[in-house]
Amino acid sequence: MFQRFFGRERHANRAITEALYAQIVAAARQTVFYSHWNVPDTPLGRFEMLSLHMFLFQHRLRGESSVAQEVAQVLIDEFFLDVDHSLRELGIGDVGVPKRMKKLAKMFYGRTAAYDDALERNDRDGLTAALARNVRPDAGAWPEASLLADYVTDACNQLAAQTPESIVSGTLAFPSPREVNNEAH
């Protein structure tokens, strides 16, 4: 499979990675996050949600086959290229982009460590606190953080039920936030 993934069928596999990335982006852009759960609909708020969903994808594929690990790496590279492109679209000049990218990469890896730690310890309160600290650092209290923590737990469970083979074939399904808590509507 490794030969097929990165060998002659490279163009087909580019379509797979693009499809996976599009599914991650679509999950991060679910409107309920912004309209009902008070995630800031700003470039930084969207970065937080995309980072969270990229983390969920990476978390799912950790420890899987070398092919799955390669796919995970390709997707993280795609994520950072997308962030770079977004910074440039926001008008950040060539001189400022590397500095901002370094800061955003540090933010991403810090967040993933906090989320991973909370999930590994099955610490819902810790996950809720990490999400509140990262997604809404400006808010003294963010009650919707618990809804997002429930969503993250639900997403981990749903992703765990998907086979690595189906994921590396381009099929990825995140839950709808509405499935986590219908009262959010």
Automatic annotation (TrEMBL):
Pfam families (UniProt xref): Ubiq_cyt_C_chap
Ubiquinol-cytochrome c chaperone domain ranges (all copies): 36-174
InterPro entries per the UniProt record, alphabetical: Ubiq_cyt_c_chap, Ubiqinol_cyt_c_chaperone_CPB3, Ubq_cyt-c_CBP3-rel
Superkingdom field: Bacteria
PANTHER family (UniProt xref): UBIQUINOL-CYTOCHROME C REDUCTASE COMPLEX ASSEMBLY FACTOR 1 FAMILY MEMBER, UBIQUINOL-CYTOCHROME-C REDUCTASE COMPLEX ASSEMBLY FACTOR 1
Similarity comment text for this entry: Belongs to the CBP3 family.
Protein name: Cytochrome b pre-mRNA-processing protein 3
Source organism of this protein record: Rhizobium loti (Mesorhizobium loti)
